[in-house]
Amino acid sequence: MTLLAVDWLLIIEKLVLIAIIVFASLGIALYTTFAERKVAAVLQDRPGPNRAGPFGLLQPFADGLKLIMKEEIIPTSSNKALFVLGPGLAMTAALMTCSVIPWSSHIEIFDRKIDLQIADINIGILYIFGVVSMGVYGMMIGGWASNNKFSLMAALRGASQAISYELAMGLSLIAVLMLSGSLSLKTIVDGQMAAGSYWNIVYQPLGFIIFFVCALAECNRTPFDLPEAENELNFGYHQEYSSMKLGFYLFSEYINMIMSSAVMASLYFGGFDVPFLDESTLAPNIAAIIGVAALLTKIAIFIFVFMWIRWTVPRFRYDQLMNLGWKTMIPLALFNMLVTGALILLKAGV
Amino acid sequence: MQALTNRAQEVSRKPMTFMERLYIPGILKGMAITFSHIFKKQPTIRYPEQKREFSPVFRGLHVLNRDEEGRERCTACGLCAVACPAEAITMEAAEREVGQENLYREEKYAAKYEINMLRCIFCGLCEEACPKDAIYLSETFAPANFTRTGFIYGKDHLLIPNPVTEPEAYAEAKGQRN
């Protein structure tokens, strides 16, 4: 169906896909908060939230309702426009990441092939990096607009941490890009799915560890949660926030977690690939559903590891954080990059 | 400076070794420990449904006892009030009228008997002082209340149910105590 030289079905299809993915990520984020509390509880030998609904399953809705019903406070001395902009920016940046992640191969409805990826742009991974660095602005603007020393300090810490770790993250990523020869996430995943090739984790164990640690830092998760250091900075950059604006900040953190898990799964763990299963022998729709399930399982495992680390490792001191980032992570990532490049050249027989 | 005790230990300030600076082995060790806790038994008691068992000598809320025929044992002698270190007990005595023999065991009884649960320290000295076995400390504790006056427990709160007319409620209030 083309009208005015525009494929309208494509637009509808993409809009539906966007709606599904945005609401699904919000829903998953909602239950990630619940999972966080449950995981924390189980790791600490206690039952966790179990009052609201069966097994406490309605707890996230109760929490959300509570956040919405709370009084909305905008401090008089704050920069009001920026104060409101902050959480919105954090949330937008968090949600924008999901547009280039290939959720599965494709489904076929009425002879129409629908890719389960919002946009397969050829610079997908660069786009993710760009959007993730935008997420820092949400934090910085929030901390600055609050007109509170603690918030500002936390925002500064968060910004410097994000910038330092983004470098090592990018460098560890270059090694993956050397292997796959493409910036498009879809191509990277397809390369891992192809017969006779292994997941990138096999070729890039060191790169994955660096990427994972940097992802923890990017998501402000423990042990790198300095912007939210309760005991030194009261509550961090969102100290002055209340009601749903605070909710947006907390929520965007969880969405960031989901998205970075999805990116890690796509880059290193074969995305929607199921190990030891040849998807091309299945009907495309079934293969697509299995693929989505596989990717979601990988994401869930990553999120569990994130939480597991949070309830195990204490927070780094600021100087330790910077030392680790600049003196360990970046040299290691450079080393990894050089070794990968050398091996690729050797294999090519130049 | 002389140390007060010989328990002080010198802090190790030697720089971290290479393995320690890698962090990863230490972190993995810690993660193994936390993971093992998933399979450990939770010590939690899910309170309103489950309750912790008190020890047999637990001293909880007071009960004014009755004898087997359902008559109040208290004679308002005031020994409990004298014994009470917190001065939580007040009472007013009255004389038994003709025809009240089935209500009060002896010819004097407590017309008013009040314990201020905010003052009470649950020491159990009233129980020890009582010559008539009329007061003892039960296995429950005072529930929360919205007002201070709500914590002044009168005879309506303290008196045990009548064993003749309400044997089940009596047994429940009596608990494991003899």
Write a structural description.
The complex is a heterodimer of chains A (350) and B (178). By secondary structure, chain A is mostly helical. Chain A has twelve helices and four strands. Chain A has one domain. Chain A has a two-stranded antiparallel ribbon. Chain A has a two-stranded antiparallel sheet with strand order 3-4. The model of chain A has no long low-confidence stretch (mean pLDDT 84). A three-stranded antiparallel β-sheet of chain B has the order 2-3-5. Chain B has a two-stranded antiparallel sheet with strand order 1-4. The longest helix of chain B is centred in the N-terminal third of the chain and has 13 residues. Chain B starts with 17 loop residues before the first helix and ends with a helix. Chains A and B meet through loops of A and helix 2 of B.
Low-confidence stretches of chain A: none
Structural class of chain A: mainly alpha
Helix content of chain A: 55-70%
Largest sheet of chain A: 2 strands, antiparallel
CATH topology of the domain at 62-174 in chain B, which one? Alpha-Beta Plaits
Strand content of chain A: under 5%
Please tell me the CATH architecture of the domain at 62-174 in chain B by its name: 2-Layer Sandwich
What's the multimeric state? heterodimer
Total helices of chain A: the number is 12
> In whole angstroms, how far apart are the ends of chain B?
60 Å
- Return the domain count of chain A: 1
Rounded radius of gyration of chain B (Å):
28 Å
User: Biggest β-sheet of chain B: count, sense, barrel?
Assistant: 3 strands, antiparallel
